[in-house]
Design goal:
Layout: E1 4-7, H1 13-28, H2 34-43, H3 46-53, E2 57-63, E3 66-75, E4 82-90, H4 99-108, H5 111-114, E5 118-123, H6 128-133, E6 137-138, E7 151-156
Parallel strand pairs: 4-5
Antiparallel strand pairs: 1-2, 2-3, 3-4, 5-7, 6-7
Length: 157
């Protein structure tokens, strides 16, 4: 598929929120109870995305004029040598088309990634195998979800 990736703009907030909501409700729902899905939906409302975008390098993936995915990277807990991948979502109908890999390519070319010795991601159960295929390893060696259902993964550089 022919995708274009660019930095998030303020006008993207509502559409990105809708993309994330669709991914959570369709793709993540089989792995998480409704209350966790709702917490995540509440986290990614447009106002919160606008606030997040001030600190992170947030990208949107377009197919034509439609936003089909997003992904961000930010210094991990303010570190100069570690970064964290955040807000990585793809519309369900675009999963398996290379959309996620295109987002990850942009994130792995970002200055926050390139300066980092270690890049972490708090993966959903749903995305665990996707990140493993891209070379991310379980931080704990086994990939057990924490109390919030996140799997801590990392890539050493």
């Amino acid at each position: 598929m022919d995708f274009i990736i660019r930095r998030f703009q303020e006008r993207d907030a509502a559409e990105v929120s809708a993309v994330i909501g669709e991914a959570l409700r369709v793709s993540n729902a089989p792995d998480y109870p409704p209350e966790i899905i709702q917490e995540m939906l509440d986290l990614y409302v447009p106002a919160n995305l606008l606030e997040q975008a001030g600190d992170e390098h947030l990208y949107v993936l377009l197919h034509g004029d439609r936003i089909t995915g997003c992904g961000g990277i930010v210094p991990y807990m303010g570190s100069a040598t570690e970064s964290i991948l955040v807000t990585v979502f793809v519309l369900p109908e675009y999963q398996g088309t290379g959309a996620g890999r295109r987002i990850m390519k942009a994130l792995e070319e970002d200055p926050y990634f390139l300066r980092a010795e270690r890049v972490v991601v708090h993966s959903s159960i749903t995305a665990r195998d996707f990140y493993r295929r891209l070379g991310y390893q379980f931080s704990d060696g086994v990939g057990a979800p924490d109390e919030e259902g996140c799997i801590h993964m990392e890539k050493q550089r």
